[in-house]
Structure formats: C-alpha cells, structure tokens
Design brief:
The protein is an alpha/beta fold. The chain has helices at 3-15, 37-46, 57-74, 99-104, 136-151, 203-214, 234-247, 262-265, 277-293, 319-330, 352-360, 421-428, 441-446, 475-487, 493-505, 509-530, 561-565, 589-595, 606-609, 624-647, 655-687, 702-707, and strands at residues 49-52, 79-80, 89-93, 116-123, 126-132, 160-163, 169-173, 219-221, 253-257, 299-302, 336-340, 371-376, 400-405, 456-460, 571-572, 612-613. It binds beta-D-glucopyranuronic acid. Beta-D-glucopyranuronic acid binds next to loops.
C-alpha cells in the first residue's frame, strides 16, 4: 500500500466512532454515542427538531444539551426551529416563556419549582413532544429525563411522564482543601483550581455542572468540613463567585464550610463565642458581604466540636447556639446552615455509637427553621455496614439531612469495585419505628417537619481531577446513584445500576447483565472480606488503607480497632444491649426487642450489638468463629467471580476502559486476600481455634501482616 493512502486510512480509522474507540470515562453517563442503526432512524423521526421558547440561561443550556445529546445519539445534527410546522418537534418551555406550552394548559400545579412534565401531543396538527415545567430548572431536568430514555434506546412516543424531586436540597460535599488536596479523595487533586480562579474557568466546571444537573443535584459545598477560614476572605469570595456563575444555569447553588473560629483567625477578634454580639455581628457582616457578591449563595456547612474542630462547646454553648447564630445572619438572604451531628469526644468514655444522639436529641426543637442537622447514615462512621443512625426519627421537630459518603474511604478507595446503591437502599428503607412502623429513614427525610420546612441530603463527593472524574470507572456509578437517591430516596438500587450500566457501557444485554450482577453483589463482598457479621472500623490507622484489627495503641480509645471488635479468648463483638453500653436503647422499642435478642438480630448486625462466645451457633449451624472464616473466604471468592465475569466481556467493551477495570479488579483481589489473611491470622491468635475444614491457613504468620506499612497511602496524615 502506498504510504499516503495508508496514512489516510489510519486517519479515517482514528476518526470513525466505534465501540473500539478509546474512551477514557470523561463523558460519564452522558456519552451520547450513536444508537444502533434501526433505533437511530426511529429517533430521527421522533425527535426531528427543537423548538425552545424563552430566553433564560437555563433554557439555553437545556436546549444546548438536548441538541448535543440527540445529535450524538442520532449521529446527525438536530435542527432548531421557531415554530411547529412539521412532525417530530420537541417543544421546550414554561407557560410563561412559551405561548405553545401555555396553549396546552398542562397540569403543572403539583410539580413545584423543580418538577417537569413530558408529553406526546398534537400541536398545529403535528405530532410533537413537549417538555414543560413551572420553572426553567425543571426544563433542564426534563431534558435530561428525555435524553435518558433516548440513551436507553426507548421509544419517545406516547409519553406522559411527570416527576419532581422528593427532597429539596440535594447537595455534594467536597472535602477539598484550598491547596487542592482532597481529604479522603482517590481521584486526583481537587477539581477547583483556586489559583487560576476567577480568571480561568476550566471547561471541566461546566461538564461537572452538566453531570450533576443530569441527576438532579442542586447544590455543592466547595470546601472541606475540616474548614479553612481563608475561603471567607474577599479574594476567595471572588473565586467562589466565578464558580457560582458557571453552575447557576444548571440549577446548582454554591455553599461553603464555615470555620467556627474564623472571627479570630481572619477577623482579628479574641473570641468566637456565638453568644457574643460582636461575634454574631462579624458573621452577619461576612454573610452580607458574600451575598453582595453571590446573591444566590446557598449557605454554610459546619463541622463543630468534632475531631478537633472549634465549635460552640469551646465557650460552653450548645450546638443549637452555634447553628442559630449562623441561621439568623443567613435567613434574610434565604440561606441555610447544615450543621453536622458527627461528634464524639476523647474525654467522653461512653460508647462512641451513642455520643451524637446523646448530644443532639435533647436539642430537638431548639434550632432555627433554616438549620438542617446533617447526620451520617450510621452512628459510627461510613463503615461498609452500619445500622441506620438512631437520630433518624428521634428529632421530629428538626429537619434532618442524610449524609452519605460517596468516596469509598472505608470500602477500598478507588480500586475496589463496590456499588454503594445497595447500601444506601438498605439504610433508606430501614424502618425506624418512629413514631410507628413504616416510618422508614427515606420517609423521615422526605416529610418536612413543619409546613414549608426544608428537607435535604448530602453526599461526600468522589470527584477529582482524574480524567475519569471518580478515580475508577465504576466509582462513577456511585456519584450517579447518589443523585438518583437524592431525587427519590425510595428508589431501588438495581434499576439505578442498570440505567447507569446502559448509559455508561452500552445497551447490549450481554454487557449490561453481567455488569449489573457484579455491581449488585459487590458491596456485600467488601463487607465479607473486611468486616463481616457486624464487625466495624478495623482499618489501618490514619489512611484506613488495609487491615489493622490488632491496633491497640492509639491515644483515643475509639481510634483503635480493638475498641470495636472486643475480641478476647472467650468471644467477639461489642455488647450494645442493656448489659453493655446500651447504645441499642437509642432505637425504638420494636428494634430494641429484635436487635437485642441474639437469635433474632439480623446476622449481619450480630457483632455490632452483641459480644458472643466463639462457639455461638449462627444460622448456618456453624460457630461464629467458623462463620467468620467462611465469610472472609466468601468475600474473596466473590471478587474472583467478578474477575471472571469481567474477563468474559473482553472485546465487548472499548479496550482502555476494559483494561483499567481488569487491572483494578486484580488489585481488589489481592487486597481482599490481604484483608482475609491478616484478619484470620489476627482473630485466630485471639480465638485459638482451628480453621474450619476446607479453609486454607493464611500464608504468613500474624507478625508478617502487622509489619506491613503503607505510609504514603492516600489519606496519610488526615
Ligand atoms: C472520617 C474521616 C475524616 C473526616 C470525618 C468527618 O476519616 O477525614 O474528616 O470522617 O466526616 O470518616 O468529619
């Protein structure tokens, strides 16, 4: 072949869109790849042109996204028109912005400010699809809903869809520092390039906003809960303003973390006492200053008197005193305070599980109405499995906000495939029995405590500067699922996984089915190889990378894994019943009865609530010791199964993403084995029992595992 021709062919091959093309994961679930030929032709007929009526920035970005998405899926530019005079129009507008929409008299009254309606209609005698909403932001959500249908290869005919979010504040929490280090981040540096802001607005910020809008996220806290007061300085407020401008058309508000001692650190004051009028005045002036620059600023997230952060307790004031000071200054601007309930104190010898409840429950009714108390899903700390936090249902007069951790600090960082949708569904569907049976965590979050009271949810982001955004292809699913649960806390993990898989990897069932099955079993695998049967917090010190169940020498008792498992020659587990710490007593009576009984407690919570002898019979008939070993092995085996399923997808998925996942699964397998071997070696040194038949001894002795050091693992020094 002549060289010129060869070069030309090479160039053409590089340009041709195909499944074999190297995808990086940057496009997330918004890939808009051409659909298969037949479906593409149908879609061209269903969506032939766009008529967007209105002039706002939000309508503009909604229209842009629709054109971008449909053009990609149809493999041809979607036309834009000003009137409906041929079949196949997509009409976009609110009754105020669009005469066409107004003429239809659509039932929009129940859709609120963020809901939308999509309907197949006849307009000017032509077949059309209308996307309508009360406000422009609803149009954006409607566009993404229609695009999702199209991405899934579903028909756009005979549609009658309406939807609205069940929670008002659907927020990401970035644990990002101003030097771009992300606390517990496994996806590179912070995406906020503070040094180049406000002058340079990285286009990535827009893609971030698009991705978030596509799943209904409407707020983002830009900075770490372990806060730095510098972000409140005027030059940083300008940088925050620049981000707010990028996000505004996408319906996303910005929030910041407020360092409680900021009046001292950047205000030159002697005190940060919330009841000192000069302190309150300083915050009021600061808040007024922010709103003068960012009129739709969302408010503050505050971590106070927790893990060394300053707070109102430093001045013998309560959390309510602290939160209310901010709330009063924010209220005139419509801002909120998200006040974290994640507190536990070194000086407090009581079970860590109990401390947040003990401190916050008596404050019910004492917070201003623009305060939300933000509660982690479980009472300890984002572990692979925890029972729901006992505060849910226990503060009926206070808006409680759920806090999930999307970044997998305790579930294998970026490399382990662990779909968190199943964990979140488990927590959200848990029955609190408060005030009565059926009051699930989801229902408590959804129901405003008062008419007009605010509701919300927060997720600790797993987003960074990595090209694939989240550190791994599969961790994108957790960002996606978080948005879906934030929109509808009663959603189900399986269909969410399926939607994500189809949009991310393609609609071929031979690809989707194995991926969904891997995802659905993945979190339980992590539980099995890290913390089976209700064990918890056995990770190595500081960075939490790898096992450390033997650690017993840290200053604070509750920093040591031995505090959580309490294994000794007789048995294992934390007695939280009335004979122990009575942490269980913080739950409603039906749960106290069920979980307090060793025979009735779900086995996955056994060692969370009970200290049982090693020979305690589990449901399988095996002793708890044997069952522990069986579960460690089950976890490792599950990872092997995932590897086999993934291997079988070779060639069905673009090579770069496939190889990345293959390599990550290999790392996961090695680390699952490390967890299993080290944990068994340690617990056997305590239980002094033989391994059940058919289960191999760890290849090394305990000293070997104890000697493993990974001082530079992400998270060291945090
Ligand atoms: C812990 C993390 C720590 C966070 C803390 C929090 O290890 O980095 O600062 O949660 O939520 O799990 O405040």
């Amino acid at each position: 072949m002549r060289p010129i021709l060869a070069l030309l062919l090479l160039l053409l091959a590089a340009m041709a869109p195909s499944a074999a093309q190297a995808e990086t994961g940057y496009d997330l679930w918004l890939r808009y790849q051409p659909l298969p030929e037949q479906r593409r032709a149908e879609l061209r007929d269903e969506a032939r042109y766009l008529v967007a009526q209105g002039s706002s920035d939000r309508l503009k970005v909604a229209a842009q996204e629709l054109v971008r998405g449909m053009s990609g899926l149809q493999s041809g530019q979607l036309a834009v028109a000003t009137s409906v005079d041929a079949p196949g129009a997509i009409v976009l507008g609110t009754p105020e912005s669009s005469a066409l929409v107004a003429s239809l008299n659509l039932p929009l009254a129940t859709l609120g400010t963020e809901g939308f309606l999509i309907r197949s209609v006849t307009m000017n005698g032509q077949r059309a699809t209308v996307i309508a909403a009360n406000r422009d932001v609803g149009l954006l959500y409607g566009v993404f809903a229609l695009l999702k249908r199209a991405q899934l290869g579903e028909s756009l005919r005979n549609l009658d869809i309406s939807d609205r979010p069940k929670l008002q504040l659907r927020v990401l929490n970035h644990w990002d520092n101003l030097d771009r280090h992300v606390e517990r981040g496994y996806a590179g540096q912070s995406i906020w390039d503070w040094q180049k802001l406000p002058g340079y607005k990285d286009p990535r910020y827009t893609d971030y906003a698009r991705a978030n809008a596509s799943i209904g996220i409407n707020g983002t806290v830009l900075t770490n809960v372990n806060a730095n007061a510098d972000v409140l300085r005027p030059e940083y407020i300008q940088k925050v303003k620049a981000l707010a401008e990028v996000f505004r058309p996408y319906g996303i508000k910005v929030y910041l973390t407020a360092r409680f001692s900021a009046p001292i650190e950047i205000g030159g004051m002697k005190t940060a006492d919330p009841l000192d009028p000069a302190v309150a005045a300083w915050w009021k002036a600061k808040i007024d200053e922010i709103y003068a620059v960012i009129p739709d600023f969302g408010g503050f997230l505050v971590k106070a008197n927790s893990e060394g952060q300053p707070g109102p307790n430093d001045y013998k004031r309560s959390h309510a005193d602290g939160a209310n000071m901010f709330a009063d200054a924010l209220r005139p601007h419509g801002g909120v305070v998200m006040w974290r309930a994640f507190v536990y104190a070194a000086e407090n010898p009581d079970d860590r599980h109990k401390q947040a409840y003990t401190e916050f429950e008596p404050l019910d009714g004492k917070f201003r109405d623009n305060v939300l108390v933000q509660v982690k899903n479980g009472a300890i700390d984002f572990q692979p499995r925890e029972p729901f936090h006992p505060l849910f249902g226990a503060m009926p007069k206070t808006p409680l906000m759920m806090e999930f951790q999307i970044t997998k600090e305790y579930l294998g960082f970026a490399t382990h495939l662990a779909y968190l949708g199943t964990m979140w569904e488990e927590v959200l569907q848990a029955d609190t029995f408060r005030p009565r049976k059926g009051a699930t965590v989801a229902k408590i979050l959804e129901k405003p405590v008062d008419k007009g009271a605010v509701t919300g949810i927060a997720g600790v982001a797993n987003i960074g500067s990595d090209v694939n955004w989240s550190g791994s292809q599969f961790d994108q699913a957790n960002w996606y699922a978080y948005g879906r649960f934030a929109w509808d806390p009663e959603a189900k993990a399986e269909p969410i996984a399926r939607d994500w898989a189809r949009m991310t990897w393609g609609n071929d069932p031979a690809v989707v089915d194995p991926i969904v099955s891997m995802m659905m079993r993945s979190r339980e695998a992590v539980v099995d190889y890290m913390t089976p049967l209700g064990l918890t917090h056995l990770m190595a010190t500081g960075h939490h990378y790898g096992p450390g169940p033997w650690v017993a020498d840290l200053a604070r008792p509750e920093w040591n894994p031995v505090y959580y498992h309490k294994a000794d020659a007789n048995g294992i587990g934390f007695d939280r019943t009335a004979s122990g710490s009575n942490g269980l007593g913080q739950y409603a009576p039906p749960l106290v009865r069920q979980w307090g009984d060793r025979k009735k407690v779900p086995e996955e919570l056994l060692l969370w609530f009970h200290h049982v002898p090693w020979e305690h019979r589990t449901k399988s008939g095996r002793s708890v010791w044997d069952e522990l070993v069986v579960r460690y092995d089950r976890g490792v085996d599950e990872v092997k199964r995932m590897q086999a399923q993934w291997d079988a997808l070779r060639g069905k998925i673009d090579a770069r993403r496939w190889e990345e996942v293959r390599d990550y699964l290999a790392i996961q397998h090695d680390e699952a084995k490390w967890w299993r071997d080290a944990s068994i070696a340690y617990f056997q040194s305590v239980s002094k029992r033989p391994l059940p038949v058919g289960h191999a001894a760890p290849p090394h002795d305990l000293e070997h595992y104890k000697a493993i050091r990974t001082p530079y693992a992400p998270g060291s020094g945090e």
